[in-house]
Amino acid sequence: MDEDNVWVVIVSYNSGEHLRSLCASLQKQTISHNVVIVDNASTDKSLDFLKKSNLHCTIITNEANRGFAVGANQGASFANGKDATHIIFINPDAVLTPDCMEHLVRSLDDGAVGAVSPVIYKDFAKEELWFKGGEMDFWRHRVTHSEDEVRTRFLSGCILALRSDVFEKVGGFDEQFYLYYEDADLSLRLRKNGYKLMVEPDAEAFHAEQSEDASVAKTYFLTLSGLLFFDKHTHRGACLWFVFFSRLRYIFSTLKKAWLHARGATVTQKETQNSVVHAFETFYEGQGHHNFIPHRKLR
Asked: Which strand (E) or helix (H) includes residue 241?
C-alpha cells in the first residue's frame, strides 16, 4: 500500500485527555498516514498538548465552534490538497487497535465499497458493542445502531473511511448538520450513488462517547438534526406523514415540558426537555442551528 496517501481528519472541541489517548493509538498504527486536526475554538488547552507532543500533524484552528460537518470538510479539503487517496474521519474520543486503519484501507480496495467503519466497542474488554451497523426508521423518525454489519444502512462518523475521490463525488458532509446525523446523511447519499456501505469485522476500535456529559446540548442537536435529516430524505409520497408525525412529537414535547415544570422536576430534566421543544421551534422557524447556545459545554 505504498502508493496510498492516507489522511486522518480529526475535528476537536475541548477534547482534552480523549485526544491524548487517540493520538497515542494513531502512533501505533501499522500503516503510514498523515493527520490533520481541525480545532473548533477549544478553551481547554488541548492544542497546547498537541504542540508539545511528538505527533506529527497539521492543526487548523477555527475562531468559533463551527460544528462537525464544517470542520470535517475543512480537514478533507486540506487533505485533498495534499493528494490524499484515502480519508479517515475519527472522533477525538475514539481509540483504535493497531491494525484498524490498515483493515479499513484494504476494505476500500473494492471499488463497489463507498465507505467503511470498524466494529466499535464501548469498553476495552469488548463486552459491550457501541456500533456494528445501523438502521433507519422513516416511520418513527429514528436512526439506531444495530448488530447487523452485513445489511447496515448507515455508518458511524465516529470512525469513517472513504476514498477521497468518492467523498468529493458525493459532495462531502452536508454542513446544515451542525452535530449528529451528518454520517447518516452521507451514508444515504453514498447508497443513492450506487456504493455499498461496509462494517469491517477485522477492524476494531473503542469509543468513550465524550458527548455523554453534555446532555442538554446533545439532546437539542440530536432532535434538530433528526428533523432536518428526515425532512431532507423522506420520500415525496410520505411527506404528509412527516408533517403529521413531527407535529405530533412537537405537541407531546410541549406538553411534557409543561408537566415537568408543574411537578417540580430537576433542573437537568427541565433543561433537557426545554432543549427538545426549542429544537422543534428552531426547525419550524427555519433559523438553523447556531442560535442555540447551551449553558453547558458543547462537546
From this structure: helix 239-262
Q: What is the pLDDT of residues 235-245, one digit of tens each?
A: 877 888 999 99
Report the distance separating Cα 225 and Cα 22, nearest Å: 27
Calculate the alpha carbon distances from 4 to 73, 79, 98 in Å: 20, 13, 18
User: What φ, ψ does residue 116 adopt, rounded to 5°?
Assistant: -145, 145
Give the CATH H-level superfamily of domain 6-211. Answer: Spore Coat Polysaccharide Biosynthesis Protein SpsA; Chain A (3.90.550.10)
Residues 37-56 as b or e (16 or more Cβ within 10 Å = b): bbbbebeeebbebbeeeebe
Residue 126 CB: number of other CB atoms within 10 A?
A: 11
Sole residue written with cell 496510498: 4
pTM over 0.85: yes
